[in-house]
Amino acid sequence: MAFRGVLIRVNSGGDIQTVQGKALATETLQDVEMFQQYGFTSNPPKGTKAIMLPLNGKTSHSIVIATEHAQYRLKNLKSGELAIYTDEGSHIILKRGKIIEVSCDEYIVNAKNKFQVNTVDFDITATNQAKFETPLLKGSDEISDGKSTMNGMRDIYDNHTHHHGGDAGTTEKPDQPM
User: Fold this and answer.
1) Which of 58, 80, 91, 176 has the most CB atoms around its CB within 10 Å?
2) How far apart are CA 112 and CA 107, in angstroms?
3) Mean pLDDT across the chain, nearest whole number?
4) How far apart, in whole angstroms, are the C-alpha atoms of residue 29 and residue 5?
5) C-alpha to C-alpha distance for 21 and 8, rounded to whole angstroms
6) What pLDDT digit, counting tens, does each position of 119-152 carry?
């Protein structure tokens, strides 16, 4: 029969993660395989509760089929919502109304060719900074840093004239605008 246990340590270096845990009557279990759903993986912290299933009735050859850590689990999700989360508080919630909420200190997107957002409104709130490293940034007709805009800087540059020594009466304008 399946039983409850508590994870003490996780080894996530192998093909299948293995755990050390405590089981019924504080029995210590070594190298218990921890199975997870395809496409999802985690390394649960010490103290995570687990459901263990002894194969052929032997607790020494158990497998972990589910884990739960009540201290870190996101609570009060609405019916149909789902989330992934860490013990540090980062999370992604797929919410009702086709809303995806991401909460973290740093948000990194690695895309070889394209990062595409097909929406009328796309809000990025970064309390310290937002950094874009790309050879080409395409978007709306206007890019702003909150103090000036690219179009405003172009207007100043395009209309800028100044004297270049010698003949004070001549002005030069660049051949090509930015």
Assistant:
1) 91
2) 17
3) 84
4) 9
5) 5
6) 666 777 778 887 777 666 666 666 666 677 777 7
- 8 Cβ partners below 8 Å, 6+ apart? 19, 20, 21, 22, 28, 46
> Token pair for residue 139?
């978007």
Closest CA to 52 of 84, 86, 28, 83: 28
Q: Specify whether the CB–CB gap between 51 and 71 falls below 8 A.
A: no
For residue 98, how far is the Cα from the chain centroid? 18
More confident residue, 11 or 112: 11
Nearby residues of 69 by Cβ (< 8 Å), 6 or more positions away: 44, 45, 47, 48, 49, 87
Distance CA(4)–CA(103), nearest Å, equals: 32
pTM of the entire predicted model:
0.65
Cα separation, 143 vs 133, whole angstroms: 15
Rounded Cα distance between 30 and 8, Å, is 10
**Token code pair at residue 76:** 């009060």
